[in-house]
Design a protein that fits this description.
The protein contains 7 helices and no strands. Helices cover about 70% and strands about 0% of the residues. The longest helix has 23 residues. Helix 1 runs antiparallel to helix 2, helix 1 runs antiparallel to helix 7 and helix 2 runs parallel beside helix 3. By secondary structure, the protein is mainly alpha-helical.
């Protein structure tokens, strides 16, 4: 593909740049034991990585759906049959953190879950791995 044929990926870059900033912020939150906010950011990073991939596969024709539901974004991105069982487990764990981490009724329960030994550390690690996986798919 020569320079005239290269697609512009400004929307893809936009979403990935946000992910890169937020993964650093999530790491600081984790280090300082702010597990609830770290979990929330892990959801946001995953959501934005999927939105970047949606832009990529759609040739940036459309802005990604205004949804926070990760399974819906996976379907829109055409990744439903590509994710491993471990990735699906991660998605199922992180998906409710977007909503439940923000509302008082659920905050204590989510904080308790994420504060359990190693849970938030594993979540952060899985988020990093998922972001890396999406970035690798964007290079193909």
């Amino acid at each position: 593909m020569d320079d005239d044929e290269k697609r512009s990926f400004k929307h893809v870059d936009y979403w990935i740049d946000l992910c890169n900033d937020e993964i650093n912020a999530a790491q600081l939150l984790l280090k300082n034991k702010h597990y609830l906010l770290c979990g929330f950011l892990c959801h946001l990073i995953t959501e934005r990585a999927l939105k970047a991939y949606c832009c990529y596969v759609d040739n940036e024709e459309n802005i990604p759906a205004k949804t926070h539901h990760l399974q819906k974004l996976i379907e829109l991105a055409g990744l439903k049959d590509v994710l491993s069982a471990e990735q699906w487990d991660f998605i199922e764990f992180v998906n409710p953190l977007n909503i439940e981490a923000r509302y008082p009724k659920y905050k204590e329960r989510v904080h308790k879950l994420l504060s359990a030994h190693g849970v938030c550390e594993r979540l952060f690690s899985q988020t990093e791995e998922f972001l890396s996986w999406i970035k690798n798919k964007l290079l193909k």
